[in-house]
Amino acid sequence: MAVIEVQNFRKSFGTKLVHEDVSFYVKKGECLGLVGGSGAGKSVILRSLIGLEKPDSGSIHINDEEITRYTEANWRHLRKKVAYAFQGGALFDSMTVFQNLSYPLKEHTQLSQIEISKKIQAQLADFGLSGIERLYPNELSGGMQKRVGLARAMMLEPEIILYDEPTAGLDPYNTKKIQELILNLKTKGVTSILVTHDMPTAFAVCDKFAFLKDKVIKEQGTIEQLKNKNDGLIHQFIEGNIL
Amino acid sequence: MNKVTSPLILWIEEQLYFLGGITLLIRDCLREGFRKPFYWNLLVEQIYQIGVRSFPLVFVTSTTIGMVMALQFGFGLEKFGGKPYVPRLVASTIFREIGPMFTSLMLAARVGAGMASEIGSMVVTQQIDAIRALGTSPIKKIVLPRILACLIILPLLVAMANVLGNAGGWLIGVSELGLDPQFYYRRILDTANIKDYLSGFAKTFFFALFISVPSCYFGLTVKNGTQEVGMATRKAVVTSSLLILLGDFFLAKLFWIIEKWL
Q1: CATH top-level class for A2-238?
Q2: How many CB pairs under 8 A join A and B?
Q3: Among A47, A77, A79, whose Cβ lies nearest the Cβ of B134?
C-alpha cells in the first residue's frame, strides 16, 4: 500500500513553471531517492508534501488522504506524523540546542521535563552530539546545525520523514552515521523520501529512485532495475554526463 | 504609454496586495487568537521587549518634547503676557496629540523596524517554515504575541509619556519661565480633564495596531534574501508612521464629533 502518492503534480512560481506533471508513490517502510540537477525542484516537492507549498493542480495522498486542500489546522495535525529535515537545519537561532529539540515535544506531547531531557540526551548521543545542549545554533558548525535539525525532525518519531540533502557538507564519518540512522528508521517501518546529490548515500539507503528532469519524472525504478540499465538517465546523471 | 502607466499600475498593485495581505493576516489572527494553546510566556517576553526596553527612549523623547514645548510657548507668549497659559497649552497638547503620537512614532521606529527585520530574518533562514513544519502556527507563536504586546504596552507607555512630558514642561516653566511651581502643577491638574486624556488614550489602541500589524505583515512577506529584510524594515517603519500620522488626523476628528454628542 502506498503511504505517499503524488499524481499529476503541477507547480509554478509566478510565470516560472517548475513541475509540469510529476507522479510517483512510496510504499510503507520504503525510502525513495529523489534525484535531479540543482534547481530541478526536488525541494519544492518535499515542501509540498508537508504543506509549505501548495500545488497548482494534481493530487497528493498521504495514508490515502488527499492533502492538497488541507487547511492550516489539518496540516498541523498531519505534521506530527510527517517530519521535514531542512537542508540547513532551520534551527531557531534564539533558542539553545536543548530548546530546539524540546520544541516539538513540548508542543505535542505531555512528557515531563525529566522525560524530555532524557529523550534529548539519547537523541543527541545517537547523532554524536552529546554535550552541546546549552549551545546556540550560531555556536555550531554547519554540519552540526544540520544534524541538530535532523535530530529535531525525528523527535516525535514520525511515520514519514522527508530528508532534504541530509548529508551535504558532512564529513565521511558523520555521513555514515546519518546513513545508519536512516537505515535504522527504515527497519522501524518509517517511510521516507531522500533528496540528495550524494549518490553513495542514496544507494546505501534508498529502495528506489525517481529522476527529476525538465519538470517531470523522467525515470524511476528500483536500484536493481537502474543498475541493469547502463544507458539510463540516472546512470548518465551519476556519471556526470547530463544535468 | 505603457512606460508611463506601468509604475502607477505596479504601485496600485502593491497597495492592493498590501490591503489584501493585511486583511488575511487580521483574519488569521482572529481565527487563531481564540484557539488553544495560548502562549502567555511569549506574550510576557514581547511585553518586556516592546515595553520595558522602549522605556528609556520614551522617557527621553517625552521629557524633552515637554521641555521644548514649554520653552517655545513661554518665549512666544511672553510678549503678549501669555506665560500663565503655558501649563494649560503644554498639558492639553500633550494629552490630546503629542503624547500618543510621538510615543507611537518612536515605537514604530524602534519596535516596528525590529519586528519586520526579526520576522523577515526568520523567513529567510526558514525558521518560520520550521515552526509550521513542526506542527505549530507562526501566527500564534510570532504574530499574535507581538500584536497583543503592542496593544497592552502602548497605552501604558503613552500614560507615562503624558506624565513625563508635563514634568519636562513643569521643569522649564519653573526654571526658565519663572512660573510658580504650585501654580504650574495646579494648572496641569485643572487642564487634565478626562475627555482630553481619553481622546489621546483611545488613539493608542489604533496606533498599536498600525505599528504591529504592518510590521508583522512586511516581515512575513520577505521572500528573497537579506536585501528584502532591509526593504521590509523600511516599509514597516514608513507605513506605520504614515498610518499613525494620517490616522491621528481622522481619529482626532472622530473623537471631536463623539465629544460633541456627549
Answers
A1: alpha beta
A2: 48
A3: A79
